[in-house]
Amino acid sequence: MNYTSSTFFLFFIAVFTLYYVARNKNTQVFILIGSSLFFYAYESPQLLLVFLSSWLVTSSTAFAVRSSTLHNRKKWYASGGVAANLALLAFFKYKFLFLEPAHFNPAGHSDVGTWLILAPLPIGISFYTFHGISLLVDTFRKSAATGESRSMPHFFANTLLYLVFFPQLVAGPIIKAKEFYPQVKAKKMAEIDFNSVFKTLITGYFLKTVIADNLSEQTFWIAYPYFQWKSPMDLIVLLYGYSFQIFADFAGYSLIAIGLAQLLGYKLPDNFNFPYLSSSLAEFWRKWHISLSSFLRDYLYIPLGGNKKGELRTYVNLLIVMFLGGLWHGAAWSFAIWGLWHGIGLALERPLSQSKLFLSRHILIVAIRIIAVFTFVTLGWLLFKLQNFSEAWLYLTKLFHNEQPGVSKGALLLIAIYGFPVVAYHLLNLLRDRLGTTLKQVLYGVMLFLILTNPGPAKSFIYFQF
After folding, report:
1. For residue range 288-298, what is the model confidence (pLDDT) as tens digits?
2. How far apart (Å, rounded) are the C-alpha atoms in residues 351 and 347?
């Protein structure tokens, strides 16, 4: 169910109405769980079994960690739960990195094993398994405020809500267990900041429907084999267009998820902080997909030793984290290479971070660094669009050795038109304290008008595939 579809709007209106008619906390939790399970099972009911299996394993092991008084037993329960979540993710997401699907013929085999092998990727599995890991680790560290009740049914219900909460189920933002559980309480409509919700949702839907969906009509030509007949200038323009598109698509989704959660009384973490203004790769990763960066830092980079075990170990840790972070995005080696692209960039940048070039606040130097980082990041997005590495390599080859002349003026104009709001969105943030209330209201009015009059063809969110 796409968050931009009329079906979803009707679904959300029904849930919102029932949710606030019921003022009792337990009833509200029940409504959220039921509606979230319906949302999850809407397109692929059979994959609900995969999610429920993950929930049962996570809840059981987390409750055992919570209830046990022996440290070693807590450790075994937590380790087992984390391993089970990772195994589930690995089986459903990465099996075809090592298995050839053509070897499994569904016509000749109707057994459960064949169905499991050929089953489509469960939506949101990357996100709800990470939520499960967060719960287990935080519970083991005694940093998860999961409530005082020792009741197993109560704990299982809260955990089910944490894992299946539909505004962020499919593509985040990732919220840590210790940040979510304290929010599970009775909600009142009077507590909603409708002004904040309006601004968040308008911005999110504008970025997604007006910018990302319209840009997708142009960046389609990056796909193989179409790019082979484009000029080098066209290829450059298309790649920058995709950079604008993927930001608008994912930042737009994150804002929509945050706004919907606010309407239901829950606060999700910010996921983007104007990342294309970053003047270093380290800054970019503090501002892009913040919830994932925070998760990888807290649950992988720091446990590996972070930067506390010498320079060489720090570089190794960076490469490991970025490699695994890249592979988390999808079952293709191109994602792992994309992660290494950023890992190597971070490693090369690290010894320069205290140089005059990086410390200079001169506006021209900062602008050059921002453009360099944006270009580096944009080149990396090619591996997102072309997930077959040989196709991505061919694209780069054509970029430098293609004899096609000129540039498509129509495509250039449309990418400039729909890319400009992304640039303006970032630049206006620098001037946010100088913008008057009237001008801000006009801008939100213009965005709302364009949402209603100029949406692009409805496309699924790019991060839904992960």
Report:
1. 999 999 999 99
2. 8
- What would the pLDDT profile of 88-106 be if each residue is shown by its tens digit? 988 888 877 766 655 555 5
CA 287 to chain centre: 13
Work out the angle at residue 322's Cα, subtended by the Cα atoms of residues 355 and 329, and round it to the nearest 5 degrees: 140
- Could you please report the per-residue DSSP string of 318-368? HHHHHHHHHHHT-SSHHHHHHHHHHHHHHHHHGGGTTSHHHH---HHHHHH
Beta carbons of 216 and 456 less than 8 angstroms apart: yes
Residue positions annotated with a catalytic role: 329
CB contact at 8 A, 156 and 63 = yes
DSSP string for residues in 97-132: GTS-GGG--TTT--SHHHHHHHPPPPTTHHHHHHHH
Question: Rounded distance, CA 415 to CA 211, Å?
Answer: 10
Residues in Cβ contact with 143 at an 8 Å cutoff, skipping those fewer than 6 apart: 178
**Considering Cα of 270, then 4, then 239, then 381, what sign does the dihedral take?**
positive
pTM: 0.91
